[in-house]
Amino acid sequence: MVEALASAFLAGRQSAQHVAERGMHALGRRWSWLRPLSRRYLKMFSGGTRPRRQDVADFLLADEGFRRAWSKHHAKIGVRHWLLGQTRMQPVAAVRKWKIPKIESVPALAEWLGTDIGYLEWFGDLKDLSSKTEHSKLRHYTYRILIKDAGSVRLIEAPKQALKKVQQRILSGILDHVPAHSATHGFVKGRSIKTYVRPHVKRRVVLRMDIRNFFPSFRAARICAFFRTLGYPESVASLLGGACTTATPRDLWKDCRYPSDPLQLWEIKSLYARPHLPQGAPTSPALANLCTYRLDCRLAGLARAAGAKYTRYADDLAFSGDDVFESGVERFSNHVAAILHEEGFEVHHRKTRIMRQGVRQRLAGIVANHHPNVIRTDFDRLKAILTNCIRSGPETQNREAHPDFRSHLQGRISFVEMINPKRGKRLRRIFEQIEWR
Fold first, then answer.
1. How far apart are CA 273 and CA 267, in angstroms?
2. Is the model's pLDDT at 86 over the cut of 70?
3. What is the pLDDT of residues 228-270, one digit of tens each?
4. I need a labelling partner for 361 at 20 to 30 A (CA). Which of 96, 110, 123, 346 fits?
5. Tens digits of per-residue pLDDT, 87-106?
């Protein structure tokens, strides 16, 4: 009976009268306690993320008024009609002006994605079956483990072509229509690493902080909640979230060059074993940005209160200010760490830097002291590589065995051109003299 009433409440519109009518239809009788119960239900869930059916069932079981009614009338209360669809979109108020598609059932989602329900459920993988199989052909991702100099691990999880196509559709059809916070500069159209650095140029002090294990910190439950916030029914939101998250097979780590610390190894396995945003999926950067909206709001407000400016590029956080901010920057960094912890993130304390004017103020590989500029040693090294390509041939300089060394060099030159067009033009002239075979 609780399940039937929960389904009825979820199918109701945002008014106590309509929610009560749905409940009366499900139970087949106008019980006097339904309208007050409906008001309490709306007070609990109205205006926020659309609740799951289990959340509503838990609310009903915990509600004192409902328990009294059940104790008094349980012999007469019965289910007359099941409202199983819950197919209406119920977005929060801010979402209604965004141009996101109206998808109110699993068949409609499959049609919108250009696939059938069977494939959709396979891609959604709500039971994490692909992470439990030992056959790589049945898995949705290919994996590449990167061991960093400090011993930490980064796992690149690239979706296979069929799933990637589904994710690209979700990205272009839904996520690209949801605006990111103004402080977010990574993977946002019209913003770049240069716009991330620009607010911190010529500032007396710059604080740089880093979020540890950024992408795997976003759990599948958080991603599904985001899609429910957009108004999608639970069945649709769960499959959208499942298609954008994954759990890493544990046997992947068997032949890996593990960190020497057994505790660190256990943490890595546990981190990736739970469904999370994969670093390598086209949807992950946008979802990470959108799911950190509240974090960005809190950090931007904290920065304003301290007379500072705040920007974020993926897991890199930057704050800057003048004399007042400099005097309390250490205490400010502690407040930032506390907010990150409350929002479910962990600070990479070894990467925290307080950079005053007397030192090189470096953000994401760009110097911000007087104007955005590339690091001189990086520029000189790239210039030497290009010069040696002319003298000895490009094959002698491809020491890291890039499969397309020419494109690799062009990318590095384009980065310099974006930050410092004058220096980039000098490198471009040298590059054009290289003889490619």
1. 10
2. no
3. 999 899 899 999 999 999 999 988 877 666 655 677 777 888 8
4. 346
5. 677 777 778 889 999 999 99
* pTM of the full structure: 0.84
